[in-house]
Write a structure and sequence with these properties.
Order of helices and strands: HHEHEEEHHHEHEEHEEHHEE
Low-confidence stretches: 392-400
Mean pLDDT: 81
Distance between the termini: 36 Å
Helix content: 40-55%
CATH topology of the largest domain: Heat Shock Protein 90
Largest sheet: 5 strands, mixed
Strand content: 15-25%
Number of domains: 3
Radius of gyration: 44 Å
Strand order of the largest sheet: 6-8-9-11-10
């Protein structure tokens, strides 16, 4: 619970998280090694080298102070300084009065205090004018003395080499590890794509590959997909067979009733037509499991075609807000069938209906509203189940159904990567059905 805030900054994709898993240890290792390197090289080595040079400078100062006169002191400064590769000038033509170094000069932070502590009497040290030399002014018995020597004598040469080599090596290994990890994650992504496509009603080619665990998961997915496809096929064949077997006697009954003079014949013909409608609903429900692959379609044209059919059938249907969208990846027949079911329910349980289309970046939403009694919130999940009948919630006197209209619409939404939502219509007071389809 303490680190829940980190979830906002963690990548959402598997590739991003794998990259973080690879990069974080490398960065931590770089920081730890760099700190140890700086402490070891910049501090210990620099302090030791500066201390050695300080002994030489101290010797030069002592020899100058021991000279009997100024001329001897000057000669001593030149000779002794040359022995230690130090340029000594007495007196100093421009004595230094302050310490100076560049802000990024890490070793200079140790050179200046070490020389001050070991020598004493240093009025200024200059490391900024030329980062290749050390200039300092020290007080002697014969006036200020300028001492100049190479910077390499007090700090390590090319201290940046090890960090640069470490960074380049780390980058190289990170790239190699990322490419290897990418090859390991690709089979997982392919498995996820195949599962997502199957969830939308499409069966794409997939062959298990990758690590042993991924192959096992892929094989299990193929077995599951094959089992589900067999069940869908068996369901379709069963319902198709039932429909085919029942259509013939229903046709004979209808023909007999047409020729009959019985006063109850019209009511019986309506019953036969209702049974035929039930068979068509069974077949529609069975076909949704074998929906064809989506293609480029005009969602606005689908809406207006459904509305026009409903109006020709005598339904009072209004067209609401329709956002412009020329094309989307849809199965036009399945989406049209779902809208017809939703609109049929709306007109069956209400007197008027309205159909709208709302488009966003990630989804398009068909909205069907009516002025009927609606469905209570606690019964909406049940209403979308196959063969569900909500007699208490919806008026059944205006028509009959088998409880498959919402179930078919929900299957169509799921096969398009969306969902069917039921709510109360704010504008018309009845039921609002949102057919959400992913773009």
């Amino acid at each position: 619970m303490t680190f829940t805030w980190l979830k906002r900054y963690v990548p959402k994709s598997l590739y991003g998280r794998a990259f973080i898993i690879l990069l974080l240890p490398v960065v931590v290792l770089q920081v730890v090694v760099s700190v140890a390197f700086v402490q070891r090289l910049f501090e210990d080595v620099t302090r030791q080298l500066t201390g050695n040079v300080a002994y030489e400078l101290r010797y030069v100062l002592d020899r100058i102070d021991a000279a009997p006169d100024v001329e001897t002191a000057r000669a001593t400064a030149r000779v002794v300084g040359a022995e230690f590769d130090i340029i000594a000038r007495l007196p100093d033509p421009a004595p230094l009065t302050a310490n100076a170094r560049r802000f990024y000069d890490l070793s200079g932070r140790l050179v200046i205090p070490t020389l001050n502590d070991r020598l004493g009497g240093v009025s200024g040290i200059d490391l900024a004018t030329d980062d290749g030399i050390v200039d300092l002014t020290a007080r002697t018995a014969y006036g200020p003395l300028r001492l100049t020597f190479d910077r390499d004598r007090v700090s390590a040469q090319n201290p940046h080499q090890l960090p640069v080599i470490m960074v380049l090596t780390a980058l190289l290994m990170t790239v190699v590890a990322y490419l290897f990890m990418k090859n390991q994650l690709r089979p997982i992504k392919r498995l996820g794509d195949a599962a997502a496509a199957f969830g939308r009603g499409r069966s794409v080619a997939y062959h298990p590959s990758g690590a042993q665990e991924v192959r096992a998961a892929g094989t299990a997915f193929l077995d599951m997909r094959a089992r589900i496809e067999r069940q869908i096929e068996q369901r379709t064949m069963m319902l198709s067979g039932i429909s085919h077997d029942l259509r013939t006697p229903l046709t004979r009954l209808n023909l007999g009733l047409e020729l009959s003079d019985d006063p109850d014949a019209p009511a019986m013909r309506r019953d036969v037509a209702e049974m035929r409608g039930m068979l068509d609903a069974f077949l529609d429900f069975a076909r949704e499991g074998t929906m064809a692959a989506p293609s480029e379609a005009d969602p606005v044209a689908i809406l207006r075609d459904v509305v026009e059919k409903a109006r020709r059938g005598g339904g009072a249907v209004a067209e609401g807000r329709v956002d412009p969208l020329r094309s989307a990846m849809l199965n036009p027949l399945a989406v049209g069938r779902a809208l017809e079911n939703l609109l049929g329910n709306a007109l069956r349980y209400g007197s008027t209906a309205r159909v709208s289309l709302e488009v966003s970046e990630r989804a398009l939403v068909y909205v069907v509203e009516d002025d009927g009694p609606g469905i209570p919130a606690e019964a909406r999940d049940k209403a979308m189940r196959a063969f569900a009948r909500l007699d208490d919630a919806r008026n059944q006197n205006s028509g009959a159904g088998v409880g498959l209209g919402l179930a078919i619409a929900q299957d169509v939404a799921r096969q398009h990567g969306g969902v069917l939502r039921l709510d109360r219509s704010e504008g018309m007071g009845g039921l609002r059905a949102d057919l959400v389809l992913a773009r």
